[in-house]
Design brief:
By secondary structure, this protein is mainly alpha-helical. Helices cover 60% and strands 0% of the residues.
Length: 139
């Protein structure tokens, strides 16, 4: 078993998947780990930024309900929903788009608006380790 280092992070994490892991799940998760670790290294993510990101995802989850799925809105805002749809419903050259991006963009929040919303949904306790410095820039 290898030790976790910055240089070996991807191999160490992906090496922890069990031998009986579904091959497709293993492919998807291995790629996610590889790209996520590359992103973190590329931007030099700070501890405060990581904590803010975790807090953002936590707050997003907390406002979800059976009728309100904020992670789908976030997926739409980041263009992930449209990309998955485009990949899984490829059209021949000259065909019309699956979904009109301008309509989707108009009906969903921009990334900046999503961040502003997350900043308004602040942690309920003063003891939270959630840094809110990014909120002053977004509001």
């Amino acid at each position: 078993m290898s030790y976790f280092t910055e240089a070996s992070s991807v191999e160490t994490v992906n090496g922890r998947m069990g031998a009986d892991t579904d091959p497709r799940l293993k492919q998807v998760m291995s790629s996610l780990v590889q790209h996520l670790h590359a992103f973190i290294k590329d931007v030099g993510l700070t501890q405060e930024e990581w904590e803010y990101g975790i807090g953002f995802l936590t707050r997003t989850g907390q406002i979800c309900s059976g009728e309100r799925q904020e992670f789908i809105l976030l997926s739409d805002t980041l263009g992930v929903s449209m990309l998955v749809d485009a990949i899984n419903n490829r059209r021949p050259a000259g065909a019309t788009e699956n979904t009109d991006w301008e309509t989707v963009a108009a009906s969903t929040s921009s990334i900046a608006a999503t961040i502003r919303l997350a900043c308004r949904i602040r942690p309920s306790t003063a003891t939270s380790a959630m840094p809110m410095a990014a909120c002053s820039k977004a509001e």
